Amino acid sequence: MTQNIKTTAHAEQDRVVIFDTTLRDGEQSPGATMTHTEKLEIAELLDEMGVDVIEAGFPIASEGDFTAVSAIAKQAKNATICGLARANFKDIDRCWEAVKHARSPRIHTFIGTSPLHRAIPNLDQDQMAERIHETVTHARNLCDNVQWSPMDATRTEHDYLCRVVEIAIKAGATTINIPDTVGYTAPRESADLIRMLLNRVPGADTVIFATHCHNDLGMATANALAAVEAGARQIECTINGLGERAGNTALEEVVMALKVRNDIMPFRTGIDTTKIMNISRKVATVSGFPVQFNKAIVGKNAFAHESGIHQDGMLKNAETFEIMRPSDIGLADTSLVMGKHSGRAALRAKLKDLGVELADNQLNDVFVRFKALADRKKEVYDDDLLALMKDQETTSAEDTLQVKRLRVICGTEGPQEAELTLTIDGMDHSIDATGDGPVDAAFNAVKMLYPHKARLQLYQVHAVTEGTDAQATVSVRIEEDGRIATGQSADTDTVVASVKAYVNALNRLIVRRTKSAPGENVKSVTMRDA
Ligand code: KIV
Ligand code: ZN
């Protein structure tokens, strides 16, 4: 199937470049904004797992994006660091300023080429062709490694697409990315488009063709793999499929599909798949977008075998129902349950199995919290420990607001009441509030003690494990003057977890307020301006 097909230029024809855009297209998802430190931590994990190209941001979009891209460029050990730029010299220069510190920098410039997108800058086909020639040439004069994307390629007329791709190649682009910007294509069409470009465009065999798919119709993974089978050799993707609307192609899905079905898709990536689970958890925590339970590869249920028939088969031979091993993605095989008699050493070993290594002082803090949880809950499962770790990561002794005490009074007769004590800048403040349900009452108490105009955009509760003593993880997203902050927390008491998550989001908002004037943290330029 892959014999005798034209493929894009690459030293090894079966090697697929993994281009991760979690920090650019993923972060663009409303509410998924990450802090500078979080972006650096994620970039480090991506680099360690063997991602070939990290798209670290859109440097012209905001001061924060610029600083993050340059810091990632300086920190990267192996990966190529790429920044996004629209088709104008100012964007491209700014992008180069940010990525030039990298061991291996790349400029990615794009313009919308479909009829709908051409209408936005009001350029006719010839004017746009001229703009592409000028901007790619300019980028190539700055950097040897230039990627060019015709945005909305899957809805661009084929003749025009071939014409502009040829112009970009002649102007010096080294990678041509074919985006399915609105998630409109389907596998056969995705493959045909790449094949058509490889066959028709002069010089197509001198560059790498990339596929960049969105998941609006749930076909992003299938479309990306079909493009590879047709000759594309770079997949653009994000961890957990994070991204605007229905998201992007999920890195873990394409990488594991190529690994598990290497018999019918004989391509290689450089990804260490055992690092997948750890980075998936990290991205879910910092973006505030929890992974759906039945998500392929990284969902909580992806390796769970509930039904009796499955369990019986699994005990006899794991391959009966499993096409990959949990350890392939870095999930510990063991399910050793912890309890209140488990000691420090057992906790350390268990956390290590889960991919978490702690220094002694950190272990001490976690151990205290683990004991408190084990006192309230008979059995502490892996997911309980991970929720506890998440809680630990998202709170700090330096937070402006801390939840000290909460008591709620509920009953069939409303309104419900909450008595809350918050420590604000080291001083305790208490209040009683009422509301439509205990969570509403408790949130009202927070607003009375710490008045703010942030609006609640999202409130989500998940049970971590089964049973009535299960912990709940709560995710909260708030917005104030265009700044978005997310918070998460876990507790066996849903109302306590809710208030802590809300306070956690407020603490992050406070940090953002002090780092920027109103509106400054909001991207001043968006891709829609392209
Ligand atoms: O979806 C898209 O078209 C993009 C481009 C900037 C590559 O993200
Ligand atoms: Zn995109």
Task: Jot down its keywords.
single chain; 530 residues; TIM Barrel; eight-stranded parallel barrel; three-stranded antiparallel sheet; 19% strand; binds 3-methyl-2-oxobutanoic acid; binds zinc ion
| Total beta strand runs | 14
Instruction: Name the poorly predicted regions.
Output: 517-521
**What is the helix content?**
25-40%
Task: Please summarize the sheet with the most strands.
Answer: 8 strands, parallel, barrel
Give the CATH class of the largest domain.
Answer: Alpha Beta
Q: Strand order across the biggest sheet? A: 1-2-3-4-5-6-7-8
Spell out which ligands are present.
3-methyl-2-oxobutanoic acid, zinc ion
Class from helix and strand fractions: alpha/beta
- Percentage of residues in DSSP E strands: 15-25%
Could you tell me the mean pLDDT? 89
Total individual domains: 4
Question: Oligomerization state of this entry?
Answer: single chain
Q: Could you name the CATH topology of the largest domain?
A: TIM Barrel
Rounded to the nearest angstrom, the radius of gyration is 25 Å
CATH architecture of the largest domain: Alpha-Beta Barrel
* Continuous helix count: 17
Silhouette: globular
- The termini sit apart by 38 Å
CATH superfamily of the largest domain: Aldolase class I
